[in-house]
Amino acid sequence: MSHLTWCTIILIISENIAKQNIILILADDLGINDVLWNNPSAPTPHIHSLAASPSGIILDNAYTLPVCTPSRAALMSGTYPFKLGLQRGFGKHSPEGLPLNTTLLPEHLRQEGYSTHGFGKWHLGFCSESYTPLRRGFD
User: Fold this and answer.
1) 60-103, pLDDT tens digit by residue?
2) Sequence-ordered strand ranges (E) for 3-126
3) 3-class SS of residue 81
């Protein structure tokens, strides 16, 4: 890849052997030919091995908006971004974020006994501490 791709990786780990661990990767600006399963010369062998494993899933038939917040909001909430008012994202100095009355994926998974860890770009609100990942279900 010749360009920088911003990425968020969410690790959801269960201490219960019956539950599988979950690794969820959301990459901004990732093109269809930037991954090995679509382009044999793409430098992504580790992502490919995770995605192509028997328990891996490749989601390759989706559409997104040209900013990152709507995709992140939909992934974390399971709700269409326009229903949350986040179809256009929001600015750096805007007191906005994913509504606090919306239960997010990591909060649901913690209720099921998973520990949740995320790193990378958040962009779902940071105008107060209540909007930040550690207050939205991440350990």
Assistant:
1) 777 777 788 888 899 899 999 889 888 887 766 667 788 899 99
2) 7-14, 22-27, 114-120
3) helix
> Catalytic one among 46, 48, 93, 123?
123
- 48 flagged as catalytic: no
Sheet holding 7-14, edge to edge: 22-27, 7-14, 114-120
Q: Which two tokens stand for residue 124?
A: 């779902």
Which 8-state DSSP code applies to residue 97? B
Q: How far apart are CA 99 and CA 131, in angstroms?
A: 8
**Rounded distance between C-alpha atoms, residue 118 and residue 64, angstroms:** 21
Instruction: Return the closest-CA partner of residue 84 out of 67, 72, 93.
Output: 72
Q: Which amino acid is at 123?
A: H
The pTM (predicted TM-score) of the whole model is 0.77
Q: What is the pLDDT of residues 42-59, one digit of tens each?
A: 888 888 888 888 888 887
Q: Is residue 93 annotated as part of the catalytic site, yes or no?
A: no
- Distance, CA of 5 to chain centre: 14
Residue spans of alpha helices (H) in the chain: 45-51, 68-77, 81-84, 105-111
Q: Write down the catalytic residue from 68, 93, 117, 127.
A: 68
